[in-house]
């Protein structure tokens, strides 16, 4: 289902706000992950201070324009999940442990 213009602007605004507060951005391809595993990842990430989002890449690129994460905009292609963290190392602490319960990663 496609988003209308106002919905897209709302997504861009929300992600721009996340990017402005975040010190870390983790981008990963999620191809092959089941819904149940994705839900576990989100719950685990949230408990460790990481906000995970599946976004349209075009909207994500627009949202990070002008932020410190703009340098990775050209790598935002394919089925990606975006993890923003206000703590500089929270995402890095969470990421290695999040891979253990799933065989798809």
Q: Could you name the CATH homologous superfamily?
A: Ribosomal protein L10, N-terminal RNA-binding domain
Query: What is the C-level CATH assignment?
Result: Alpha Beta
**Proportion of strand residues:** 15-25%
Please work out how many helical segments DSSP would assign: 4
Low-confidence stretches are none
Order of helices and strands: HEHEHEH
Question: Roughly what is the average pLDDT, rounded to an integer?
Answer: 87
CA gyration radius, whole angstroms: 14 Å
CATH architecture: 2-Layer Sandwich
CATH topology value:
Alpha-Beta Plaits
Strand order within the widest sheet? Answer: 1-3-2
Find the structural class using helix and strand composition. Answer: alpha+beta
User: How far is the first residue's CA from the last residue's CA?
Assistant: 27 Å
Global morphology = globular
Percentage of residues in helical conformation: 40-55%
Strand tally is 3
């Amino acid at each position: 289902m496609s988003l209308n213009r106002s919905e897209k602007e709302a997504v861009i605004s929300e992600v721009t706000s996340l990017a402005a507060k975040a010190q870390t951005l983790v981008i990963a391809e999620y191809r092959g992950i089941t819904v149940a595993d994705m839900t576990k990842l989100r719950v685990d990430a949230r408990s460790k201070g990481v906000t995970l989002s599946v976004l349209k890449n075009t909207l994500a690129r627009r949202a990070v324009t002008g932020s410190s994460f703009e340098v990775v905009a050209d790598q935002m292609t394919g089925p990606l999940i975006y993890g923003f963290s206000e703590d500089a190392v929270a995402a890095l602490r969470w990421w290695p442990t999040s891979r253990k319960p799933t065989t798809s990663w």
